[in-house]
Design goal:
Largest sheet: 8 strands, parallel, barrel
CATH topology: TIM Barrel
Number of helices: 11
Number of domains: 1
Oligomer: single chain
Distance between the termini: 36 Å
Bound molecules: ligand PBG
Number of strands: 12
Strand content: 15-25%
Strand order of the largest sheet: 1-4-5-8-9-10-11-12
CATH superfamily: Aldolase class I
Amino acid sequence: MLSRPRRNRKSQVIRDMVQENHLRASDLIFPLFIIDGQNRKTEVSSMPGIYRYSIDLLLKEVESCMNLGLKAFDLFPNIEESKKDKVATESLNKDGIYLRAIREVKKNFPEACVITDVAMDPYSSDGHDGLVENGEILNDETLEILAKMSLAHAEAGADIIAPSDMMDGRVGYIREALDGQGFKNTSIMSYTAKYASAFYGPFRDALESAPKFGDKKTYQMNPANQREALIEAALDVEEGADFLMVKPALAYLDVIKVLKDNFDLPIAAYNVSGEYAMIKSAVQKGWLEEGRTITEILMGMKRAGADVILTYHAKEVLEKGWI
Ligand code: PBG
């Protein structure tokens, strides 16, 4: 036998030397949920260890993450039902929790990277990402609302705007709106291939944002499709996106890989709420070893081609020294 692959596995030093992929704090983005009020912190029941924070406590949470070297945050608001309407008016409220949270985080931690979510669902009385008329999700009419939302986020100090709505043409529309108002340095992380997935359930619990009727299949992608992701990615590149995201991640590693192989923009993977819930429930039952399972999954996403991973595990993997 001339070739013995085991020689490169014979000691820790050699294994480390030949390791192909690495996980670092700078690869991770931590999604954070915000609620109204003061000194409030409520656990998401389907996501043990993940909380919704009032802004004062959000700042404390951001500070403890920054101390661990975790510096990129994706913010999501839980909006009271009474503030929701058909056109997502609350999303433009300068004194509302979302725009205030962006301003406060940037004011207190200017070196943090704040990523904001652009879609109507947290503010919509229909619970959909776009404007609804007679049960239909209107595309072009939604773009105008998304552009206003993006401008409000940019004005509040967002570093990266992340449209998660899956309307056609929104990246270009938002890019133009931002440039037109002088926000040419505000980045866009597009949810390029966002699938109509069962894995978003716990997130919708966190925000209480589930659709009031129907599903999201006329705008989010069919989980059976891979090539369609190439169409979405080509459009996003053409429209000026800075990052291409695949979501969810675990059941879509092939999609991460195919985008990585075909496009030169950085690829983001969203390790979503349902993926987090699966791990935590198995760990609680004693069925899986927590640190090794989590790092194996995150490493799988990197190996598939993700440059950056949005994950609810971001803080714990650093805190517990798992990476
Ligand atoms: C909605 C949005 C969703 C997520 C991020 N933005 C849910 C959905 O599309 O219904 C899901 C994130 C997760 O499950 O962790 N615009």
